[in-house]
Amino acid sequence: MAEDIPYDKNLDLAPGRVDEPMPGVRRILCNNPSPFTFKGTVSYIVGRGRVAIIDPGPEDAAHGAALLDAVRGETVTHIFVTHTHRDHSPGVPAIKRATGAQVLAEGPHRASRALHVGEGPRLDASNDTDFKPDRALADGEVVHGDGWTIEAVTTPGHTANHMAFAFKEANVLFSGDHVMAWSTPVVAPPDGSMGDYMASLQKLSKRGEPTYFPGHGPAVRNAPRFVAAYILHRKAREASIVNRLAKDGESDIPALVQAIYVGLDPRLTRAAGMSVLAHLEELVARGTVATDGQASIAGRYRLGG
Ligand SMILES: [Zn+2]
Questions:
Q1: What's the gap in Å between 179 CA and the centre of ligand 1?
Q2: In what order do the strands lie in the sheet with 50-54?
Q3: Looking at the whole model, is its pTM more than 0.90?
Q4: Core-most of 64, 185, 202, 260, by most CB within 10 Å?
Q5: 177 near 162, Cβ under 8 Å?
């Protein structure tokens, strides 16, 4: 695997403790580490006095209490949600109950495309299908708080409803799981879409924010260059799939994962398979790769045309 992305895995933050990486941005780490969440979900507090919370995190009593503790004496007016994976949104009801804040997001969970025959829900039921925002935000919509302004930026790909939030006064972007400093996100069909994900990266590459605050791990510094590296990384991954098929003639997803992901954490094998499927769906749609019927996790693949 090409180590072409300038990863940063230094997050000096203990679970439940609040820090302030820049004026007007506080963050708290939830104690839910895993191969998918790194050290855990990072929730953010925007502003001072009358504040917004971004991504309350999983349903986790200790984390919910730590968040409420961090804003004691203040008023939470808004709760923003980047997407509906279980490590980001199930913490919403408890915070909403305690604060009466309005919940804003792109929309409820949905797949990026229709399910294929025989296709079940993806990775260990990671979706929060109960989530419903009080207010659905469209791309570019602006929300005015007390001393802060948030612009909604639709960024589908990791999920169909993924949304990043630009904090205008601070010139930073809360990037959710779309762009993270510690890793690339899982893009797993049918909830994820590689075509959407690449388009969302291109969209961010035209923005100016130098710093992103992601849903996991430390801040992304020099964000425009980082996003460019992300785009190159996915293009290289796509090229290695095409090269492999050119060499082997025909192959399947387990063989491609083994050939392409050298030194992969075994717990991530299935997720890697889903990412390869996401690339293959895109390549089949473009006619570069052929398969019998629809692209599927069990399919066999060869070069098309
Ligand atoms: Zn996620």
A1: 11
A2: 18-22, 25-29, 42-46, 50-54, 75-80, 102-105, 135-136
A3: yes
A4: 185
A5: yes
List helix spans (H) across 105-252. 194-205, 223-248
Spacing, Cα 22 to ligand 1 middle (Å): 24
Going from the Cα of 158 to the center of ligand 1, the distance in angstroms, rounded, reads 7
The answer to whether the Cα torsion of 86, 87, 92, 94 is positive or negative is positive
User: Average pLDDT, whole number, for the chain?
Assistant: 94
Ligand 1 centre distance from Cα of residue 159 (Å): 7
Strands of the 142-144 sheet, one edge to the other: 142-144, 149-154, 163-167, 172-176, 211-214
Find the 101 Cα to ligand 1 centroid distance in Å.
23
Average pLDDT over residues 77-101: 98
**How many whole angstroms from 73 Cα to the centroid of ligand 1?**
31
Q: Which residues contact 73 (CB under 8 A, 6 or more apart)?
A: none
8-63 pLDDT, tens digit per residue, is 999 989 999 999 999 999 999 999 999 889 999 999 999 999 999 999 999 999 99
